[in-house]
Structures are given as C-alpha cells and as structure tokens.
Amino acid sequence: MMVDESLLMQRMAGRKLSGLIAATYTPMKACGDLNLDVVPAMVEKLLLDGVSGLYVCGSTGEGMSLTTRERQLVASAFVNATAGRVPVIVQVGHNSLREAQELAKHAQQIGASAISATCPSYFKVASVQSLTLCMQELAAAAPETPFYYYHIPVLTGSSIDMVEFLTHADEAIPTLVGLKYTDTMLFEFQRCLELSNRKFDVVWGCDEMLLGATATGARAAIGSTYNLAAKIYRKMTLALASGQLETARQWQSKSIEMICTIGRYPFHPAMKAILAMQGLDVGPCRLPLESLSQSQVESLRESLDAIGFFEWSGDTSKPSDA
Prior knowledge:
Keywords: Carbohydrate metabolism, Cytoplasm, Lyase, Schiff base. The chain has 14 helices and eight strands.
C-alpha cells in the first residue's frame, strides 16, 4: 500500500498527546454481549470530567477478550460518539499479527487519531529485532495513522529495553511516534522522553505514579482510574504546575488510597461496579474476569465511603482529610 506522505505528515505534525487520556471500558450486557448504546453517555461523562483523549480496546477495555469484529464495533462507536472533539487511540494488538493488521486497517478507515498495540504475548517476544519486525508488520497496515507501541511487560512478558526499541524501530516504522509506557521504571521513562532530542511522544500509564511522572516530564497519561476520578488528577497536575507541591502530593495520595482500596477486589470488575455507583452502568466484565458478588459490591461501596472517595472525587477544591 502506498503511503500518502503529505497526509501522514499532517497527522503527525500535531502528534503529541497531552493531559489525561481515559482507557475506556467496554460496556456489556448481563449476558456478556456488547452494549454499545451506552458509549455516547460514557463519552459525554468523560469529556465533562475533563479528559483530553480516549484509549479504546486496551487492557481496561478487555480488548483481548473481544473478537476482532467486536473490537471494530467498539472502536467505531467511540470514534463516532467523540466526533473529533478529542483524540481517540485504538489499541489493535493481537497474538495473531494478521488479525492485528485487520484491526489497524479498520482503525485508519474510521478515522482514529492513532493506533497502539501490545506485542504478541503467547509466544514471547524476546529481542529488540523481533519486536521491531512485529510492530513494523502491524503498523504497515495503517500507513497514514500514527502508531504508539504499548509497553506493558507485566501482561505481555516482554521486558525489552524501550530506549533500544525506539532507537532500532525509528527508521523501520515510519509511523512510530512513541509509547504508551505502562511500567514503574521512571528512569527508563525519562530516558525515552529525552531520546533523540525529545523526538518521541512517551505517554505515562501508571495512575498511582502520575505525580512522579509529571515531575519527570510527562505531558500525557493514559489510565483506567481517569474514568472515575479524572477531576482529582487534574487538580493534582494543576497544583504541581502552580508550585503547590504539597497539595499535589495530597491529591496523589488520594489516588493511591483509592487504587489500593479498589485493588482489594478484582480490579476491573470493581471499576465497572464503581461506574454504576456513579450513575453509569457499563455492565459486567467478560470471563475470565469474574464479576463482583452483591456482597462484594456493598463492601466496596462501604470501603470507598470510608476513605471519602465519593466526596473528594467530585468538584472539591481541596483534598479532604476524610
């Protein structure tokens, strides 16, 4: 396929993401089927909360538990509902690179702002060369769409040095613009940010460490808990930008407390349960993720109430001491 270089350059010119990008959940019915009628309401809530982009069909969106056709339907629903108001990045990684190519082609056809992909994970990718070849083959299917590699070693089992990957893949993948960096190694994240005179757009992926990443130089972050509490993260980054470091620390502390509380339960099912508590019913997760029992939902609500979540995740001006 011929690359329209002028169109590619136009799309990549304003390529750097900024702010909070919500890793969206995939709404489902009780039977496990997609419930895409909910997507417009999800998008409006996120935009009202101040997110600046959406990341679709990633780990949070259970992309790996969906069929290729389902993933295409989900991507289309979010692109249509967003209507160009914020960037939509579609995660197209798959154990089958052929399926990943189909997802990448579709994302380009529907006008996604960018694509992103994990590497194949059943057969482990063990070298920079192998990772580059895999991502080169995948990204070539969407030659006019910016590409972000999704680095999440805890799930893929691939812990390849990202500085080496960016250096090696730079010329091999013309559409490569950066990474979704979901690891806790701030020093490697900083090296990636500073590589080649800050050429690459490296987006942070660990919500509970956003303050440290922002201080290190992160301009954008993709995360699950921005679905629930984008407002506290925005207050944290605004406090940091205005020199109110102690206030910023307090907001990050609230985030950590929230995440640790949710982490006592199966995480993504608990997140979906909390969205329902906030008035947005996105249904259950799909197996192998098990839904919470009613007693677990009640216990989760009590635990969140005990830490003041429902107060300080709203429109408060200062972190609550609750």
